[in-house]
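Researcher: Hi, I'm a grad student and pretty new to this. My advisor asked me to get structures for two proteins we've been looking at. I'm not sure of the right format, so I'll just paste the first sequence and hope you can take it from there.
Model: That works fine. Here's the first sequence with its structure tokens right after it:
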Amino acid sequence: MTDETKLIYQQDGDRLVHTAGILSVVSVSALAETDQSLVKDSPDAEHAVITNSTIFHVQGGGQPSDSGIMTSKVNESADSIFEVKSVRRPAHGSQILHFGRFMPAEATRFDAGEEVQQLVHVEKRKLYSRLHTGGHILGLAINALCREGVLSSLTESKASHYPDSAAVEFVGIIEGKHKDAIQVKTDEYVRSARPIKIHWWSMEELLEKCNGVAGGFELPAGEVVGRVVEMEGLGSYPCGGTHVQDCSQVGKIEVKKISRSKGSSRVSYRVV
């Protein structure tokens, strides 16, 4: 397998319907064991559909994968619908695996070379984009409070943007008494409605300008530029995820809790 899957959502995050070409359809049981293990979060997935391009966000970077459906573009009267449950990178190569099942089970499978229409689950995509942008805004707000002397020096380490476990983590101690200050600064950034912009920067520029790279950052093998999301005038992060168009579209970011363990602090949040 040599053809790679082009990640359309990294260039056009607002596209929710897309025509793609089928490269192959593989039974999950026929995949390498390392790739079969990727479906543990979707136990009812029976096949992996591989296309030459995709608008489905691939799980990673703290963001869940998109879900949705694929339908035949060639034969619109066909009854086959592929329900996309999860989307993952294989252990080897660049052909994205769309895990799911055909509905009904006896439906005709897609053929190699056939065109299909991809449709993303809109409400989930919107929520995941709000959560991902919200996590970056929260991180930038905490970094700003460090610069202002409200918080002691911290090093941003990682983040999760899943609905039930959204949080940003820092090496260093954030005391609980600072929760209100973090909420106020985060609210300020959301109200600013600063545009969200996507850039492709060299490694040198990325390391110079981005937050969240203090612990080391590497581009994927073979890549010479990295994708960056910028909250204009507030800061930027290397990021492959989906985002809203401006800070206000996140809605309310509620700072839920600050927890501390082994010299690190975790600030959990949700968007409402």
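Researcher: Oh nice, that was easy. Here's the second one.
Model: And its structure:
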Amino acid sequence: MAARQPRFNQQVLIDTTPLPDSIPKVPELGASSAPLLSASFFIGARCRSYNDDYMLCKTEAHGKGELDCMREGRKVTRCAASVLEDIRTHCLDEFRSHWQCLENNNQQMWHCRRPEMKLNSCVFDKLVRFVRDIAIRSHTDEASSPQKLEKVIPGTPENETPVHLRKRQIYSQNA
């Protein structure tokens, strides 16, 4: 039995120190982990260059560059916000269905392959972008023309169907 009584602090602590003017102001995404996980492939594909710049800045700062890398971090946030906004605009029902499945299944992707397939097909059909990324394979040879996107998982054997395209998931409860 403990000798002292527990003390609980129920106050919300907010740091009111403003950021320097050299750091651009960006609103937070306001998304929980499930929508971010649902859109993670698309965020990673479109925002790869911003992510690389941010990680390079963090690496070069040796863990001491919080304010130095804030500008690059804000670019990543702005890019992710644009991806989420595009998905919400064009594929809201499929997006909501997929992230709610993730939320209800402990963030495990293998339970939610059917909603993921619907979300992927919607995004690949409706969100046409200029593709110059390693993680996305184009259907034409011209890199500067608008192209449909295709999800490519690194290390997938050429003669096998990728896991996100399989009609029946072996271990899923929702098969």
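Researcher: Is there anything I should tell my advisor about the second?
Model: You could mention this: The radius of gyration is 20 Å.
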